[in-house]
């Protein structure tokens, strides 16, 4: 199986770290509280395992905002919350009286989509800045359901390959007890394009 | 989707044919006629496209808008979020969504001129997308979300309203004094107020979601409810009838509470049942009070018997019933004799105590269905149901004897009481309750007049017909036998079951001799002697004769461990003079300690516990042993046993007789034996009739045996008057 | 100036590489000491006379601010910069409290130059 060199792995992690730093700052501003970030994690694995990893972190029932990005490298970016916590998050963001309903109302779903959009754009945007490249990002999509359904349906199926690059980083809002996950999922081809880009941008390995 | 693709394909295929067809123009038309706002910005952020929807909602025509930036178009326009999104699309190819929640009115758009006048901005959702088409463009779509926003607002309003109403309702429910529990359609608890928490012992938190009958555990007169009231409410949408029931609530812990409970279905405007409300209150005190009042109205507070009024009511009922039925009833009118002496010499407290004891005695001598009442002073009435004249006379006589035998002790004094009883038959020919009572009273008066301690039967001819009991003839016969010394003594061996050849213990038995020298067994004369108060004399006769014989053969008996058991009757026990007599006789004949034991019956012992106790201790101090005879015939005596300091326990022969065959009797003997041993008493089995019983007794571990299977009673002395000790 | 030593602490090799490259392009004779976490930084700086340091915030083990407090005692004169992608206000404020510079990732030549040429 294809492998990333230690340097490439480190570089991807650092790029996500930078992107997420900006994203977390946006989120922190919106919820008016501190957002804790984990160390980013970069791994090549089977797509099946990637979904299992995600399930282990946020549970099977999730609320997701997805953006598909296309450019020199491509893939899907996801912002994921345990389904039970997404309601919490929206309420924390909107600072509105809670509806006594279990489901998010359509307007609240839209608001959550915007939040996801801001975070994902901050992250993807910082990558674009570093590489001085522009992406083409689709509109964010809101989805709710089990991990299986969301990932099988939403993965860029045409470029499917068994192995994927999974880049992930956890974040948490302690005051509201909300844990989320930001992931980038890229197929092998896209990953190779990314590593090429890293090599040209940052020069040889010293 | 398929349909749409089909159309596109058609268009593409047709386009070469249609010479005039201009796809670009078509695209422009589509954009222009869209029902959403669409505008496109170039790299310099100037507007290159502005559709009619935008023109209509903004009030700015397309040709006026093109070439300008948003800032130029809308004076004072400043929307950082939108501007950032547009920049991101133009410079970095990113899409963005601006939700209504975070950006309610990004652009100054109005749905109608009226709204514009009212400055009622349109609720909007904006999507920004990059377009790469020979240069970078930013496509902005604006969607009017006013309807969705209004729905959201309404939902929120309803929720608030609902919450408010619920809070309001709950505030009312929690402030009322009754307990309230509401249940959902499945009969599960969804609300309870503080009073309900207190009464049921369940906290709302714990009870929430539990089935109703777990929290509101209700029984009707100690039994489960006949019908299921919650199911009734839910299925029929009707309140169940619970008002007539005497309900009790079983709280989570603690004693049951009497409650009044009502339930009703909770329905919405469409008469859909949403749940059930149960309201209840603690009526323990009220119900107790009602019971107390009822009880007091019909009872005599001193004796707890029915009072005159209740008795009269029941009598009237009885008279009424007897006319329709063929049974006959009887009425007893009782007036105590010598009651006044007690009252006069010892005071009212003694009189009251006597009345209480007499009440218990009377109650013990009538049947379960009979009615006993205190009619006033020392007068009592008894209604005997389904009781022919003969049976009524028997019962009256039993009562008379029981009272005659009864000894009332107060301090140092002991009193004999008697009763005069008038008996009347209640037949269909009776006129009224008053009439019957009057006749009974008259018969009672006649009984008193003819010498007290009598039973008089009311006869219409004359009120003086004395009912003679058959035992009366025994009285002179026993008296004569005593006067002529016509009694003789027998003895029956009591052997230790571990060493059955040892014959040193004997129970002394007394026989009466007829005028012609025929033996009369105790079963015949003793009941009569007891009834007529002659037993004490017989006991004294036995004591002095036995002591005399022992004294005579002192040398032969001494130091051999011989012992003789003498029976004492209940009358003797309650007579202080008898005790003095026994002590005097012990001393006179110089009886060695341990040689005499006295047997007292369980029934005699418990009828006057405190004086018997004194009697026993006194005799023990004088060197005598005490046995409790016929033990087990009244099971209540287990408790009394602790207070009777006896030395031997004689197990009632009725149990022993059948113990080899009957497992229950055997178990009785076993447990009496165990209790005796636990209390460090020696046990003696009577009626030991065969070897099988002996084997059983040995196995159980009973200490002594007595009966035909061991030895028959034999005369105590031989022809020469010496003791027969075999 | 040539006896200056700069301590670069970052868990990302890329970050260290970039900072080192930009530093050396300005001061080719500086002694560069690299460490990937707090413990390593404390160990490697023991016998050195550190005059400059750039510390990452988000690292495995102790975080950058904790490390700065420890290094500050050892090198009270040193110029310290917290370099982080985490630009949330609370991190900024903490950096301010410790009186260290705050450099937002990604690291660029301009940012480094501005810092070491003061």
Write the topology of this structure.
The complex is a heterotrimer of chains A (206), B (726) and C (118).
Chain A: H1 6-31, E1 36-37, E2 41-46, H2 47-58, E3 61-70, E4 75-82, H3 83-94, H4 106-131, E5 136-137, E6 141-146, H5 147-154, E7 163-173, E8 178-187, H6 188-202
Antiparallel strand pairs in A: 1-7, 2-7, 3-4, 3-5, 3-6, 4-8, 7-8
Helix pairs in contact in A: 1-4, 3-4
Chain B: H1 2-14, H2 23-33, E1 37-41, E2 47-50, H3 52-58, H4 62-65, H5 70-73, H6 80-92, E3 96-98, H7 113-117, E4 124-132, E5 136-144, H8 146-175, E6 179-183, E7 189-192, H9 194-200, H10 204-207, H11 212-215, E8 218-220, E9 223-224, H12 229-236, E10 247-249, E11 257-267, E12 273-282, H13 284-298, H14 308-322, E13 329-337, H15 339-346, H16 348-364, E14 371-376, E15 379-384, H17 389-405, E16 407-410, E17 413-416, E18 418-426, H18 433-449, E19 455-457, H19 474-483, E20 487-496, E21 505-513, E22 519-520, H20 522-531, H21 535-552, H22 554-557, E23 563-568, H23 570-573, H24 576-588, E24 596-601, H25 602-607, H26 609-621, E25 625-631, H27 637-641, E26 648-651, H28 653-657, H29 663-678, E27 682-685, H30 691-700, E28 704-705, E29 714-715
Parallel strand pairs in B: 18-19, 21-23, 23-24, 24-25, 25-26, 26-27, 27-28
Antiparallel strand pairs in B: 1-2, 1-5, 3-4, 4-5, 6-7, 6-12, 8-9, 8-10, 10-11, 11-12, 13-15, 13-18, 14-15, 16-17, 20-21, 20-28, 20-29, 21-22
Chain C: E1 5-9, H1 13-26, E2 31-35, H2 38-44, E3 52-56, H3 64-74, E4 79-84, H4 89-97, E5 101-104, H5 109-116
Parallel strand pairs in C: 1-2, 1-3, 3-4, 4-5
**Level-2 CATH architecture of chain A:** 3-Layer(aba) Sandwich
- Strand residues, percent of chain A: 25-35%
Helix content of chain C: 40-55%
Q: Give the biggest sheet of chain C.
A: 5 strands, parallel
What's the arrangement of strands in the largest beta sheet of chain C? 2-1-3-4-5
- Looking at the structure, the CATH topology of chain A is Chemotaxis protein chec
Helical coverage of chain A, percent range: 40-55%
| Quaternary status | heterotrimer
Structural class of the helix and strand makeup of chain C?
A: alpha/beta
Overall structural domain count of chain A: 1
The overall pLDDT average of chain C reads: 89
Strand content of chain C: 15-25%
Count of DSSP strands of chain A:
8
Largest sheet of chain A: 8 strands, antiparallel
Distance between the termini of chain C: 13 Å
- Give the CATH topology of chain C: Rossmann fold
For the record, the CATH class of chain A is Alpha Beta
**Unreliable sequence segments of chain A:** none
Segments of chain C where pLDDT lies below 50 for 5+ residues? none
Shape annotation of chain C: globular
CATH architecture of chain C: 3-Layer(aba) Sandwich
